[in-house]
Amino acid sequence: MSKFVTQKLHAYIDYPVALGLIAAPFVLGIGMDNAIAFALSIATGIAALLLTALTDHETGLLPVLPYKFHLAVDGLVGAAFVAAPFLFGFTGLDMAYYLVIGATVLAVVGLHKGDDVIVAHPAE
After folding, report:
1. DSSP-derived 3-state class of residue 73
2. By the 8 A CB rule, do 67 and 117 touch?
3. Of 24, 34, 71, 105, which is most buried, counting CB atoms within 10 Å of its CB?
4. In angstroms, how far apart are the furthest CA atoms of the chain?
């Protein structure tokens, strides 16, 4: 399978994804039966905003973290989201949400074009 997720594409989708994680519990009703499902999505969205803002890529606002570190964190988040329903007893929509989001994040990390990792904000 061809790897097509570039650093630039990843940089531009990070902010909308983070905002989606924050909004999803309210819009979709995630966590109505499980407070952990509600809080985990929001907390992860806030952390993702911070991570994106601090990453050295095209949309980093204070680029102090290497992009490879960002990818590693994304991989851990994807795995955590896949595990969360089983660890915290999520069912129904909550379970489906975390499994789909987790699998999607893992796919994005797995489909990343590894040879395009660049320093987006070179030292002057």
Report:
1. helix
2. yes
3. 105
4. 51
